[in-house]
C-alpha cells in the first residue's frame, strides 16, 4: 500500500509559477515510476508529466512541454511538479500517482495509487 499526499496548490496569475509536491509513504518509492495528472471541471483526466523510477527519464504531453518539469527525490520519497508560465487552461485539480511499473505512462490505468489532489487556479 502506498499513500500519496499532494501539496503546493493555490491561486496564481497568468504567467506565474507554482511548485507542487507529493509525499509518499508505504511501499518503497524508488521501485516505481510516478506521474502527475490533472482534471478540470467537466473534463477528463489528463496526463501532465511523468518520471521513471530512478529519475533519469521524464515524459510530457505537448500541452505542457517546456513549461512543466517533473522531478523526484527518492531519499525523501517525494515527487515534484514545477509549473512555469501558467495559463488559465492549466486550472485543475492536480494528482500524483504511482505507476505499476518502473517507468511512467500517460495512461491513468497504468497507475496503482493516487493522491487526493490539490487545486491549482490560474487567474487572468
Descriptive keywords:
124 residues, globular, mainly beta, single chain
Structural class: mainly beta
Largest sheet: 7 strands, mixed
Element-level helix/strand string: EEEEEEEEEEE
Q: In one word, what is the shape?
A: globular
Question: How much strand?
Answer: over 45%
Q: Helix count?
A: 0
* Rg, Å, rounded: 13 Å
**Overall pLDDT confidence:** 94
Low-confidence stretches: none
Helix content: under 10%
E-strand count: 11
> For the terminal residues, how far apart are their CA atoms?
40 Å
Q: Care to describe what's here?
A:
It is a single chain. This protein is an all-beta fold. The chain is built from no helices and eleven strands. It has strands at residues 2-7, 10-13, 18-26, 34-39, 45-51, 58-59, 68-73, 78-83, 92-99, 111-114, 118-123. The strands form two sheets. Strands 2, 4, 5, 6, 9, 10 and 11 form a seven-stranded mixed beta sheet that branches. It has a four-stranded antiparallel beta sheet with strand order 1-3-8-7, with no helix packed on it. Strand 5 and strand 6 (58-59) form a beta hairpin. The N and C termini lie far apart (40 Å).
Write a brief structural summary.
The chain has 124 residues and is mostly beta strands.
Amino acid at each position: 500500500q502506498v499513500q500519496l499526499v499532494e501539496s503546493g496548490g493555490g491561486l496564481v496569475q497568468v504567467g506565474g509559477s507554482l511548485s507542487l509536491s507529493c509525499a509518499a509513504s508505504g511501499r518503497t518509492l524508488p521501485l516505481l515510476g510516478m506521474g502527475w495528472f490533472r482534471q478540470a471541471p467537466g473534463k477528463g483526466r489528463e496526463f501532465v508529466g511523468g518520471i521513471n523510477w530512478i529519475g533519469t527519464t521524464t515524459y510530457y504531453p505537448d500541452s505542457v512541454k517546456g513549461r512543466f518539469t517533473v522531478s523526484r527525490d527518492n531519499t525523501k520519497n517525494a515527487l515534484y511538479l514545477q509549473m512555469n508560465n501558467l495559463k488559465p487552461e492549466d486550472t485543475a485539480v492536480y494528482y500524483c500517482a504511482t505507476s505499476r511499473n518502473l517507468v511512467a505512462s500517460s495512461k491513468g490505468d497504468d497507475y496503482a495509487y493516487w493522491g487526493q489532489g490539490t487545486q491549482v487556479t490560474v487567474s487572468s
